[in-house]
Amino acid sequence: MLYKTSILDNFLIWLENLGLTTNTAQLVKISITVFSIILLAFIAHLIIKKILVTAIHKFVRKSKTKWDDYLIKRKVIQSLAHLAPALIILYSTQLTLEGSPRLLDIINSGIFIYISLVVMITLDAFLSALHDIYLTLPLAKERPMKGYMQVIKIIIHAAGSILILSQLIGKDPTAIFASLGALAAVLILIFRDTILGFVSSIQLSANKMLKLGDWISMPSRNADGIVIEITVNTVKIRNWDKTISTVPTWALINESFQNWRGMEESKGRRIARSIYIDIKSINFATDDMLERFKKFRLIQDYINEKQKEIDESNKNSGITDEDTVSRRRLTNIGIFRKYIEEYLARHPKLHPNKPPYITLVRHLQPTEKGLPIQIYVFSKEYSWSQYEKVQADIFDHIFAVVPEFNLSVFQSPSGEDFKSMAYLNREAEDT
Question: Are β-strands 269-277 and 360-363 bridged in parallel, bridged antiparallel, or unpaired?
Answer without folding.
Answer: unpaired
